[in-house]
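User: Teach me something about this protein's shape.
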Amino acid sequence: MEENLSDENLIAPCGLYCGECLGFQDGRCGGCISRDGLCLKYSKICNIYECCVVERKYRVCAECKDLPCEKIDAFFNTPEWHDEVVNNLNKISEIGIEQFLSEQARWVVALISCAKKNGIKHCSQCKNWPCEKLRREPLIPE
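Assistant: First, the predicted structure itself:
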């Protein structure tokens, strides 16, 4: 599974890294891009994919001059999530998708290793977050 963490499909247009998600890690989802923006959890409420990829023909919102926009602001309505996606998009602009993907893959390998060390499958089962590796709730599908 760790070799799949470098799949470019795991960077959603909004800047989230889908490789962290339990849905990806257990094989239920290949990421937002692989599902044409239809993440199982958010398919009825997220219109970021439609705006970014379908309408504007961008790969990620980092390419858009309107960043951050009302769609990002409305969907990521908590400071932790909003700040993370905006920071991710800014970082993608600075270092490029490949380097960002590499950093995110290394981070998720560390999360997976930590989970295994604690005898659990995914961070969502951990009682110790927020922690130094994950300062917000884990990314999980519903």
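Now, about its shape. Residues 8-125 form one domain. The mean pLDDT is 87. If you'd like, I can walk through any region in more detail.
User: That's plenty for now, thanks!
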